[in-house]
Amino acid sequence: MRTQYFEYLAPSSIEEAVKMLKEYEEAKILAGGQSLIPLLKTRITVFPYLVSLSSIPGLSYISLDKDKLRLGPMTVVSDIEYSGDLMKRLPVLTEAASQIADPLVRNMGTVGGNVSHADPSNDMPPVMLALRARFTVQGPSGTREIRASDFFVDTFQTAMNHDEILREISVDLPRGRSAGTYVKFKKRAGDFSLGTVALNVVFESGNTVKEAGIAVASLGPKPLEITDAEEYLRGKELNSNAAEHVARIVSERVEPVADYYGDVDFKRRIARAITLEAFRRINVKVG
């Protein structure tokens, strides 16, 4: 199905894009278009103006220093997927990137679009929650920073105002030994996921957990950080008992709805299973 008619706007700077959003209240930001354009083709949602970021220089980058990762919003997913430095330092991020749709989508879709679209089945939001990312957004009054825990408000809704644009994503890199993984469950290749979990663990000594980040998606109206599971893990050995306890917490905290793919109990069992698998993979990585 074709999209309904829209006017394509191509600003040359963030400031110009912000002005367009302020002028056209029904406008929508267009990044890579891999989430937005399919939605427009359904005609469930109509935007008469699309403000493209593709002509604005300096929005695509992966910057890593000793303590911090910075991502430009127009960085395509495949650049994250194949970044050797990210594979070593934040494998949960590269694993999630590698599981998004197919190579064509990963070559065109952007990290900024994936998080800003706030689709509850998207892969980057739970990773950003598990990594406690921060989002720098720019609007008419300048820039402000939003924590990942405050960013995802509801289905297709973020904490950004209409006239604000995502300018940068930043993540504090873990100090010391760490491991991360991303598990995604779907019935067939190409299907939407029925449950995903991002797990990132920082160790203080041996297999004792210093800090953990756990977040899920596709199991409720928005991606969800499982904070009580994170708190439980602090100071614990990463063993089978801890994995079982956390898996139970996750299955209880998710907010799935019954649909074509299964009932609520089935989806809670998915939450438990993918959490246990994430722990298994982490234990394999750390030996």
Automatic annotation (TrEMBL):
It holds the Pfam family FAD_binding_5. One of its GO terms (molecular function) is FAD binding. InterPro entries: CO_DH_flav_C (IPR005107), CO_DH_flav_C_dom_sf (IPR036683), Diverse_Substr_Oxidored (IPR051312), FAD-bd_PCMH (IPR016166), FAD-bd_PCMH-like_sf (IPR036318), FAD-bd_PCMH_sub1 (IPR016167), FAD-bd_PCMH_sub2 (IPR016169), Mopterin_DH_FAD-bd (IPR002346). Keywords: FAD, Flavoprotein, Oxidoreductase. Gene3D superfamilies: 3.30.465.10, CO dehydrogenase flavoprotein, C-terminal domain (3.30.390.50), Uridine Diphospho-n-acetylenolpyruvylglucosamine Reductase, domain 2 (3.30.43.10). Residues 1-176 form the FAD-binding PCMH-type domain. PANTHER family: XANTHINE DEHYDROGENASE SUBUNIT C-RELATED. This is Carbon monoxide dehydrogenase. It comes from Thermogymnomonas acidicola.
